[in-house]
TrEMBL record:
PROSITE patterns noted in UniProt: MULTICOPPER_OXIDASE2, TAT
Residues of the signal peptide: 1-23
Key words, A-Z: Metal-binding, Oxidoreductase, Signal
Protein name per Swiss-Prot or TrEMBL: Multicopper oxidase
Residues in Plastocyanin-like domain copies: 35-146, 156-268, 358-458
Source organism (scientific name): Phaeobacter piscinae
Pfam families: Cu-oxidase, Cu-oxidase_2, Cu-oxidase_3
PANTHER family recorded: MULTI-COPPER OXIDASE, MULTICOPPER OXIDASE LPR1
Gene3D superfamilies: Cupredoxins - blue copper proteins
Keyword Membrane recorded: no
Superkingdom as given in the UniProt entry: Bacteria
Length: 459
């Protein structure tokens, strides 16, 4: 029998139901060093940190409302943890070293087990010294499948990443601590790739309908993306379905950690150019993922897709009456910081720079003892982020999805990561219904490591 992807996935989840009981141990996910050929073949391979020896780590696919169970085995020489990005998760499983758990020492393990309430495209990544650990390769896709999947011929995950490596040696460049990268736009790679390949390609037939799950797992790069030879609709952002699919016309913007689910029809004829292009630094458009169009499929194009089914319990009530909390985004090159709290002490720019802190959220660099705010469970929150820096920031809230509230009170789609441009003010609103300690930080990971990390308490 020829296995289609769909039956293969169903097979996997059936197998997961027959897993041995918890006492005998969970299925493993091993963080380990591995050699991987990231650059073209004529260049040396790269020593990476991987999950289970692959870049990206294995794509975990589970049905909605099931439970994810994995034992993280730390075979690295440094402590690590896993964060399950975008999942409305039990706080104890959120994987934030120093806030929700202790980092897992080398040679030890940690059991992650939690429910998956929402269908959608998520991802997992290291959350201990993440600027370095994610850049070295510790990330993978987490796909939660709808009970009734949309009518597509194939479902493909495209994890978009960039790597900063020396082509002569294959080694990662600059020790992951460069003050230059941290105080500016972050660590931007010199090689862009998909699913661990710089030359990722798919093949498809004309008129085939594909679901493409785009995930930006890069450290700091904001991707501008265009479709070629494809007619597409955005059906979900950051895992959460849009009420109505939106036709893709111009450039899609995918900030670090964000996801876009597309449904695309292959419109290019056999042999014609098709795929996804990205805006390269020199103003040119380059191939990110090429699609080789083979013969014509039997089916014709099907018109706009139906919306994906909404996830449960997503209402945010009483937004207009909720108080607004201000969290200005501060610091960075060409702005600097003054009188900023670090470890409970007010410091000036020079002192902060010596401590590797270039950024602040609401006057504080890095995690403090006290949360930015304590919300009572069920409360509606509003946080206004004014970007007083010269750089864009991809602000991510753990544990709950939010909506952007426009000045006229209109609410945008559900998201877990929002791009805030310089001089822009973005207000997010969410229902604080998930108890625990939740990070709110910039997902440009060099910024997060250098001050742009805070947390909120839901009690
Ligand atoms: Cu995807 Cu705190 O991160
Ligand atoms: Cu930032």
């Amino acid at each position: 029998m020829k296995m289609t992807r769909r039956s293969f996935c169903t097979g996997l989840s059936a197998a997961s139901l027959m897993r041995p009981a918890l006492a005998q141990g969970l299925p493993l996910l091993t963080a380990q060093e591995t050699m991987v050929q990231l650059a073209p073949d004529s260049y040396p391979a790269t020593p990476v940190w991987s999950y289970d020896g692959t870049i990206p780590g294995p794509a975990l696919r589970l049905p909605q409302a099931s439970r994810l169970e994995r034992r993280l085995v730390n075979a690295l020489e440094v402590p690590t943890t896993i964060h399950w990005h975008g999942i409305r998760i039990d706080n104890a499983m959120d994987g934030v070293a120093g806030l929700t758990q202790d980092a897992v020492p080398p040679g030890q393990s940690f059991d992650y087990a939690f429910d998956l309430p929402d269908a959608g495209t998520y991802w997992y990544h290291a959350h201990t010294k993440s600027m370095e650990q994610v850049a070295r390769g510790l990330s993978g896709a987490l796909i939660v499948e709808e009970v009734t999947p949309p009518d597509v011929d194939r479902d493909e995950v495209l994890m978009i990443d960039d790597w900063l490596i020396d082509p002569e040696t294959g080694l990662f460049v600059d020790s992951f601590a460069s003050p230059m990268a941290r105080s500016h736009g972050g660590r931007i790679g010199n090689l862009v790739g998909v699913n661990g390949r710089y030359d990722y390609r798919l093949s498809a037939r004309q008129h085939e309908r594909l679901r493409l799950r785009l995930i930006n797992s890069a450290n700091a790069q904001i991707f501008g993306l265009r479709l070629e030879g494809l007619t597409g609709w955005t059906v979900a952002l950051d895992g959460m379905p849009l009420a109505q699919p939106e036709a893709v016309t111009g450039t899609l913007v995918l900030a670090p950690a964000q996801r876009i689910d597309l449904i695309v029809d292959v419109t290019a004829e056999e042999g014609a150019a098709a795929g996804i292009l990205f805006a390269a630094g020199d103003d040119s458009w380059q191939a990110l993922a090429e699609i080789t169009v083979t013969a014509r499929a039997a089916t014709k194009s099907r018109g706009a897709p139906a919306p994906l089914p909404p996830n449960p319990r997503m209402e945010i009530n009483g937004v207009d009456a909720a108080p607004v909390l201000d969290m200005p985004l501060q610091g960075g090159a060409m702005r600097g910081l003054k009188n900023t709290l670090f470890n409970g002490q007010a410091m000036g720019w020079q002192e902060l720079v010596q401590k590797g802190q270039f950024w602040a959220l609401a006057g504080q660099a890095g995690l403090g003892e006290a949360p930015f705010t304590t919300l009572s469970r069920g409360e509606t929150a509003r946080i206004r982020m004014k970007n007083d820096t010269m750089f864009p920031h991809a602000m991510h809230l753990h544990g709950m999805h939010f909506r952007v509230r426009k000045e006229d009170g209109a609410l945008g789609p559900l998201r877990d990561t929002v791009l805030v441009m310089p001089n822009e003010t973005t207000e997010i609103t969410f229902l604080a219904d998930n108890p625990g300690k939740w990070l709110l930080h910039c997902h440009m990971l060099g910024h997060a490591a250098s001050g742009m990390t805070n947390w909120i308490m839901v009690a």
